[in-house]
Specification:
0% strand; mainly alpha; single chain; 70% helix; 94 residues
């Protein structure tokens, strides 16, 4: 695990929290962050892999390894579940 993986994972986790919170507070019906594979995380992961493949063609020095991508993915999954169900479940009134 590298510092670069933690920085990318933190930035993508913040984006995940923003998207999940916005979507769930706006609709108040679906919980997109609480699914086994949240669509937000899948979409951001797809974007990360796509950018990684483009970087491979431009400069191999900046390409993320499998372990770094796994760290970012794991951080996004945890951020998605916590922002969806973990912190808000006690404060919402259904």
């Amino acid at each position: 695990m590298t510092f670069r993986a933690l920085i990318i994972g933190t930035l993508l986790s913040a984006l995940t929290v923003y998207i999940v919170s916005y979507a769930e507070l706006l609709t108040q019906v679906i919980m997109i962050g609480f699914l086994q594979l949240p669509p937000v995380v899948v979409a951001l992961m797809f974007g990360l892999v796509l950018i990684n493949k483009l970087l491979e063609r431009v400069n191999k020095r900046y390409v993320l390894g499998p372990a770094e991508i796994t760290v970012a993915f794991s951080m996004m999954l945890v951020a998605s579940v916590v922002s969806s169900r973990g912190l808000w479940s006690g404060y919402r009134q259904y």
